[in-house]
Specification:
- Chains A, B: It holds the Pfam family Dak1.
- Chains A, B: Pathway: Polyol metabolism; glycerol degradation.
- Chains A, B: It comes from Streptomyces kanasensis.
- Two copies of one chain form a homodimer.
- Chain A is an alpha+beta fold and about 325 residues long.
- Chain A folds into two domains: about 170 residues, 3-Layer(aba) Sandwich (Rossmann fold); about 140 residues, Dihydroxyacetone kinase, domain 2 (Hypothetical Protein Tm841, Chain: A,domain 3, 2-Layer Sandwich), CATH 3.30.1180.
- Chain A is built from eight helices and 18 strands.
- The first copy, chain A, has a six-stranded mixed β-sheet, with helices on both faces. Chain A has a six-stranded mixed β-sheet with strand order 13-12-9-16-14-15.
- In chain A, β10 and β11 form a beta hairpin.
- In chain A, α2 crosses α3 and α6 packs across α7.
- The radius of gyration of chain A is 19 Å and the shape is globular.
- At the A-B interface, α1, α6, α7, β15 and β18 of A face α1, α6, α7, β13 and β16 of B.
Chain lengths: ~325, ~325
C-alpha cells in the first residue's frame, strides 16, 4: 500500500475535485462525473464524447478541450461509466451537428455507450460511434470480445477531434475515426502489476524478475510471461508483433506510452530502441509522442502504438490542440 | 528490479537518443550530453542554462525551448553534470547578451556550475548564477549545505525564461530568478523509495505502510517517518509547513508535483486536498499545475511548491512556452 488517497470509495470524486481546481478552463461536474469543454456546445461543430474506467489518466478527461474531446465521462477505477453520464455529456456538448462516441472495446463500455446512444437519440441527439480495438496481443480477453482498445484511443481522439474542429460533418468525423483505428495497432508489456485502491495491493501476481508480454491496460494477462528482458529485446518483440499485423508501407505515427509506474528516463530509452527497430525494418517515423498517456495506475511497463499515417492524418495530428495533457499549436 | 533498461551504464545515453528521436525540434548532442534549443543563440536574448543529475525527468531537458531554458545538461543518474557540459551549453546559446545558470542547491552541482562559470567567462561569456533552494524540510542534508532545490526550479526556469524571451537584460533576468526562488517553498513526501539503475533496487528502506515526511528528490531522509497517512492528512502537514515558512499575504502559484511513481489519479486527488487546506488558510491560488515534473525515478509520493505571486510573476508565468513538458500560449 503506497497510495496517496483518502479512502478507496472517494478516489474518483477526489480526483475530479482536484481536476476541477487545476483546470478552470474546463467545466467539471463532480457530482455527475462529466468533464466538458467550457465553450460547448460550439455552434455547428460535431462533438466528441469519450469515457471509460478511471485509472488510465490522463485518458480521457485530460484530453478534453479545443481540438480533441468535447466531453469525458470517468467511471469508477477500471469500471465503465454509466449511460446516464454519457447522455448528460452528449446533451451538454451537442450543437445540433451530432455527437461521436469514442468507445474502447471493453464489454461494459460497449454496452453502456450503446444504451446511452439510444437514450441520447430519443432526446433528439444524432449519435455515431467508433470502437477502438488496437491491441494485437490477444483476440479475446478477460474484459473483451475481440481486441482491446488501448493506445490508439489517443490517436483517434486527437485526429477525429481535429477534423471536428475544422467543421467536418458527423459522417466524416466518424469515418476518419474509424480509419485511424483501422490503421493503428498496439502491444504492451508489464514489468509489475498495478494496484487498485479497492484491492489495496497488486491486481495480479507478477514475480520480480518476470514480465508479461502483451498485457492489457487493466493488467489483463497477455501472450506470455518471460524472465526479465532488456529494453532492446522488449522493443524487438513489441515492434515486430505490431508490424506483423499492421504492415505499413509508408510513414507511421508512433506513441511510446508509459503504463504509469515507469520513469520518463526509462521511457525515452525504450523509445530509442523502438526507433532503432523501426529503422532496421525500414519504417519511417513521421511523428513521435513519448509519455504516460494511457496508463494503468502504477503499473511499470510500456506500450508501443503505431498508426499508418497518410498526409491527411498527419495534417490533422499536427492541428492545434489545447487540453490538459496534449497541447500544441495554439 | 522492474526497470525498462538495457544496462545501467547506458541509461542516460539511451534516454538521450530517445529524446533526440522524439524531439527533432531540439538539438541533442548525445555524445556530449547537451540539449539545446534549435534556434540558439537567439540574437540579443539572454540564455538560460540548467542541468543536474538525471532521474528527475522531465526536469531539465524537458524544459528546453522558447520561453524557458536555452539548454540543459543531464548528468548521470542523481549525479551532477560536469563543467565541460555546462561550458559547451553556454557557448552554444550565448548571443553576447549573457547566460544565466540555474543551479539546484546540491554540493556537486554548485561546485561544477561555479567552475563552469569561470571557464565560460574566460571564453568571454558573461555568466550570472541563481541558486534554487526551496525545500523547507531540512536545512542541511546528505547532498547539501543549506536547503535543497526541488519543485521551485520549475517556477524559476519558466518565469525567468519568459523574462529572457521578452528581451530583459541579464541583470534583470537574474534578479527575477532570485525573486522567484526567494518567494517559493516546497515540501515533499515519499510513500516508497526510488530505485536507481546502478543499485538495481531501492535506494533506501521504507517499509510498506510507512511514509517519509520531508523527503528530498533523491530519497534523502526528511523530517520524520510515520505510519501511512491519508491524502488529506498529508496535505494538512505539507501545506502548513510551507505556509509557516512562506507566509504569503496574497495569491500563490501552486505546483502539485508527482515524484514519479504516483498515478495522476492520486495526484489530482491530493491536489484537491491541497486546495482545501489553502482555502481554509485563506490563501488564494492564482494558478495550479498538477503533474510529475520534478521526479525521483519511480518513487511514489508528491511534493507541494508554493510561490508568492505578484502581477509581474503571474504575467511571466502565463507567457507562451513551448517545450516538451510545458507548453502553452504558442
Amino acid at each position: 500500500m503506497r497510495m496517496l488517497i483518502n479512502v478507496p470509495e472517494t478516489v474518483v470524486a477526489d480526483a475530479l475535485r482536484g481536476f476541477a481546481a487545476a483546470h478552470p478552463e474546463l467545466t467539471v461536474d463532480v457530482e455527475n462525473r462529466v468533464v466538458v469543454r467550457r465553450d460547448a456546445p460550439v455552434a455547428g461543430k460535431v462533438a466528441l464524447v469519450s469515457g471509460g474506467g478511471s485509472g488510465h489518466e490522463p485518458l480521457h478527461a485530460g484530453f478534453v478541450g479545443p481540438g480533441m474531446l468535447s466531453a469525458a465521462c470517468p467511471g469508477e477505477v477500471f469500471t465503465s461509466p454509466v449511460p446516464d453520464q454519457m447522455v448528460r455529456a452528449a446533451a451538454a456538448v451537442d450543437s445540433g451537428a451530432g455527437v461521436l462516441f469514442v468507445v474502447k472495446n471493453y464489454t461494459g463500455d460497449v454496452l453502456n455507450f450503446d444504451m446511452a446512444a439510444e437514450l441520447a437519440e430519443d432526446e433528439g441527439v444524432q449519435v455515431a460511434r467508433v470502437l477502438v480495438d488496437d491491441d494485437v496481443a490477444v483476440s479475446d480477453s478477460l474484459y473483451t470480445a475481440g481486441r482491446r482498445g488501448t493506445g490508439a484511443t489517443l490517436f483517434v481522439e486527437k485526429i477525429a477531434g481535429a477534423a471536428a474542429e475544422e467543421g467536418a460533418p458527423l459522417e466524416r468525423v466518424e469515418s476518419i475515426a474509424r480509419r485511424v483505428n483501422a490503421a493503428s495497432r498496439s502491444f504492451g508489456v508489464a514489468l509489475s502489476a498495478c494496484s487498485t485502491p479497492a484491492k489495496g495491493g497488486p491486481t495480479f501476481d507478477l514475480p520480480p524478475g518476470e514480465l508479461e508480454l502483451g498485457v492489457g491496460i487493466h493488467g489483463e494477462p497477455g501472450r506470455e510471461r518471460r524472465p526479465m528482458m532488456t529494453s532492446r529485446e522488449i522493443a524487438d518483440v513489441a515492434v515486430d508483433v505490431v508490424l506483423d499485423d499492421l504492415r505499413p508501407s509508408g510513414p507511421v505515427l508512433l506513441l511510446v506510452n508509459g503504463m504509469g509506474g515507469t520513469p520518463l528516463l526509462e521511457l525515452y530509452g525504450f523509445g530509442a530502441e523502438v526507433h532503432r527497430v523501426l529503422g532496421e525494418r525500414g519504417v519511417p517515423v513521421a511523428r513521435t509522442l513519448v509519455g504516460s498517456y494511457v496508463t494503468s495506475l502504477d503499473m511499470a511497463g510500456a506500450s508501443v502504438t503505431l498508426c499508418r499515417a497518410d498526409e491527411e492524418l498527419l495534417r490533422l495530428w499536427d492541428a492545434p490542440v489545447r487540453t490538459p495533457a496534449l497541447r500544441w499549436g495554439w
